Sequence to fold (145 residues):
Amino acid sequence: MEVKQFSSEKDIESVLDLFIRVMSEYPYEENWTRTSAFKALKGYFQNSEGFCFYAQESDNVIGFVFCIIQVWDDGDHLFVEQTIIDPLYRNKGVGTSLIRKVEKTAKEKGIKSIELMTTKKSSAYEFWKKRGYVFEGYELLGKEI
Fold:
């Protein structure tokens, strides 16, 4: 397995099917199209400042992470927007390899902290907790309009 940095919009095309498949499953159960998925991931890529990575085995993309830098009064923070791992490759070190790459790059660039949102229903919740990420007391609020 090799972890690579996204370098162009062509790399986004290589992860679309995986993104759509995983996001259609429990607990997300979302109905992404290739067009809407490309638009969302392209937005992350354009705002990532080099914090988009994918894991590849042979010619298959088996996972990826998109992060964006957020500027705060105390410095730059990194927000993990999407982390997707192919279900066939979960619990095999793919997510860990991707996050290690993110953390190493963040440290090199002087990032203060890494933050993310996840749901307790997701298997990702325990993944993040095992890697030292803790609940910071925020809740997501929303309103349909």
The two ends are 44 Å apart (CA to CA). Residues 2-130 form a domain with the Aminopeptidase fold (CATH 3.40.630.30). Residues 94-108 form the longest helix (15 residues).
